[in-house]
């Protein structure tokens, strides 16, 4: 198979599992505690992936300076995007809550409570999707670059694919609770999946002769965005439902990805 098609295939696998997770969440009524457990498991996988497949390799190949800059830059990029998306939604929720000022102290009308819950869920879903996009682009570039080194990198592609399932599932479950339409969700995830395919091909074609420090920068932008998204969104969302079990599921996810890294 032509190497360009191998790069496209690696991006398709990564993006395809986002669609898989989204489809499962939309068409199957999964209990929220199960969604939370899968998100916690995915958080552990993501942390392991960024530690052993992205940051460690970037530091070895490109040095500490681009690794540090990229890692911090990815986190800042995600947090800024998170705030830009969340602020208008928080403003709408605050405006909605103002209509309940006549309620008794400590009480709010049921429609205000429901609106707040839906708004929070929708916001969390969009934020996770933004995280998937921010880390998906450099991740896919990395998958495309790996083809240059002798074909598809099984550990990287597998870890990214596994971790993408709970991202798609958790985001879509939240979007569904927030009242988003099926069309909106489908366009969102198909668009992100297509971006991952294009990014993987770009990674193979455009960065064939890129210096190691540039590749390290690109790789760690993905890692920084991943870690910020995990800490700001996935773990808090999981903890709201799973509480003490969140740490256990995240540990299992981390261990599974680590073993995959060591055994392949």
TrEMBL record:
Transmembrane annotation, as ranges: 6-27, 34-52, 64-81, 117-134, 140-163, 184-207, 213-231, 243-261
What is the name attached to this protein's record?
Answer: ZIP family zinc transporter
Key word Mitochondrion present:
no
How does it sit in the bilayer?
Multi-pass membrane protein
Q: Which family does it belong to?
A: Belongs to the ZIP transporter (TC 2.A.5) family.
Q: Does the keyword Nucleotidyltransferase apply?
A: no
Source taxonomy? Bacteria, Bacillati, Actinomycetota, Actinomycetes, Micrococcales
The record's subcellular location field reads: Cell membrane
Whose protein is this, by species? Microbacterium yannicii
Sorted keywords for this record are: Cell membrane, Membrane, Transmembrane, Transmembrane helix, Zinc
């Amino acid at each position: 198979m032509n190497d360009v098609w191998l790069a496209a295939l690696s991006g398709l696998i990564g993006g395809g599992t986002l669609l898989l997770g989204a489809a499962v969440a939309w068409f199957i009524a999964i209990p929220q505690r199960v969604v939370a457990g899968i998100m916690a498991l995915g958080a552990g996988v993501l942390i392991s992936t960024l530690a052993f497949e992205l940051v460690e390799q970037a530091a070895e190949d490109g040095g500490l300076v681009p690794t540090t800059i990229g890692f911090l830059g990815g986190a800042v990029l995600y947090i800024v995007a998170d705030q830009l998306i969340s602020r208008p939604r928080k403003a709408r929720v605050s405006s909605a809550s103002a209509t309940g000022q006549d309620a008794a102290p400590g009480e709010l009308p049921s429609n205000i409570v429901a609106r707040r819950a839906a708004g929070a869920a929708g916001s969390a879903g969009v934020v996770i999707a933004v995280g998937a996009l921010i880390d998906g682009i450099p991740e896919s570039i990395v998958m495309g670059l790996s083809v240059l080194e002798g074909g598809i990198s099984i550990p990287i592609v597998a870890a990214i694919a596994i971790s993408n399932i709970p991202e798609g599932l958790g985001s879509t479950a939240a979007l569904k609770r927030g009242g988003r339409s099926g069309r909106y969700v489908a366009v969102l995830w198909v668009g992100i999946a297509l971006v991952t395919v294009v990014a993987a091909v770009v990674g193979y074609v455009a960065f064939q002769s890129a210096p190691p420090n540039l590749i390290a920068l690109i790789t760690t932008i993905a890692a920084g965005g991943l870690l910020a998204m995990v800490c700001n969104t996935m773990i808090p969302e999981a903890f709201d439902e799973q509480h003490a079990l969140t740490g256990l599921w995240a540990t299992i996810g981390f261990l599974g990805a680590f073993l995959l890294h060591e055994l392949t």
